[in-house]
Each structure stands twice: as structure tokens, then as C-alpha cells.
Amino acid sequence: MSDRSPGQEKRTATTSKGARRRAAILDAAEKILFEVGYGELTMRAVAVTAQARLGHVQYYFPSRTELIAAVLRRTLDRSLDRLAPLFADADADADADADADADAATHTPLDAEGLVRQLLVDHDDPRLVRVYAELWALAGRDEIVAAILRTFYSEYQDQVAGFLRARNPALPDAVCQARASVFTMLIEGSALFRSGIAAHRTEAADAELVATAAALLD
Fold it and tell me: Which residues fall within 8 angstroms of residue 161, CB to CB, at 6 or more apart?
């Protein structure tokens, strides 16, 4: 038996329904952005795709800009969620190595190349790369999108810098931040070339990319 009053139950149900409807609208907008592109992302198109009334879309997102911003934040948050465990696991491995070999002169280094290869897996999803290409182009003419992207990459770089600090506590913070910045440029910028948008990937270029990015982590 619920301890909540009928009024509380009703509000909870309403809130849950609203959350589902909002998520459905974002799913529809994301589908359009991924499959068709930013140019086709209109409020009416989103309503049709979400099988919702235009008024419902406008209720949750009064303007197209607010809708696009919400889609971008959710997409980028998911990317950060995928990144976090990779760096957390790497930090845990580094701590385990340090504990196991505390009395040894040397210990087995963390597999930085393996971490880099895991980060590059996202480039194998053509829809994801395409939407990032859309975001980069849009950021050049829309400050709201640019601000969202800057926040995302700032958090991305913070995760890389944190990994570097855990790996080498003696490394100056300025160096950690600089390496994290360059590392992010390499991984994210290479998406255009490895995806076929700006060029086609080759095994030789991939090997150099992985080695160069891993060297920044080492």
C-alpha cells in the first residue's frame, strides 16, 4: 500500500508521463538530426516523427533553439557517460598496478594504446560522426551550440587531465591540461578523416594516430 496521498500519486503519474513525452520528443529530434540533418529539424517535423501534437512539442520546448540545445546536451552527456568508465577503469588499473608493485623498482605500464583504441570506437558509428560534423558546422554560426560544445570538450579534457594526474602525480597541472587539450584535438578531429567525410582511413595512419595519442598519455 502506498504511503503517498492521492494527490501525490496523481502528480507523480503526471510528472512521469511528462518525462516520457519529453523524452519521446527528444528521441524524434535526435532521429531527424542523425538521419537527415540539422536543416530538416523543424518543430513540425519533430511533432510528426514523435506522433505528437505541435502544441505538445512547443509546450516542452518553446523554440527550435531550445529543442536543439536539449538534444545536443543529451547527446553529449551520453558521450561523457561512455568516456567516464574508460578513464575510471584505467585509473583503477593504475592504482592496482601501483599497489601490487609498491616494493618493485618498476611496474607494468598501463596500456594507453588500448585506451586510445577504445575511444576511437565511436568513429565506427557513421551516424554519430555525422551528427558531430553537423554540430561543429552549426557551432560556427550559433553561439548557443558553440557554448554547449565548449562545455562538453572542457569536461572531456578534464577527464583526460585527471587520468594523466593519476598516472603521473608529479606532472605539473599546466602540462596535464595542455596534453589533455592536444589529446582531445587528435581523437575528436580525426573523426572527420577516419569516417570518410574528409578522407578515408588507412591502417598506417591509424597506427600513427594511436601511437601519437598514446604517447601523450604516457
Answer: 173, 176, 177, 179, 180
Q: By three-state DSSP, how is residue 51 classified?
A: coil
d(CA 26, CA 104): 53
How far, in Å, CA of 93 to CA of 98, rounded? 9
Give residue for cell 557517460.
81
**pTM (two decimals):** 0.74
The alpha-carbon radius of gyration of the chain (Å, integer) is 22
Report the C-alpha gap between 155 and 189 in whole angstroms.
16
* Residue-by-residue pLDDT tens, the chain, 218 positions: 445 554 544 444 457 888 999 999 999 998 998 888 888 889 999 999 999 999 999 999 999 989 988 988 898 888 888 888 877 765 555 554 444 444 443 434 447 898 899 899 989 988 788 878 888 888 898 898 899 899 999 999 999 999 899 888 999 999 999 999 999 999 999 999 998 888 889 999 999 999 999 999 98
Q: Are 80 and 155 in contact (CB under 8 A)?
A: yes
Dist CA 110 CA 218 (whole Å): 9
User: Which candidate, 90, 29, 86, 87, places its Cα nearest to that of 56?
Assistant: 29
Q: Could you give the C-alpha distances from 118 to 39, 77, 176, in angstroms and in order? A: 32, 18, 21
Cell numbers standing for residue 207: 597506427
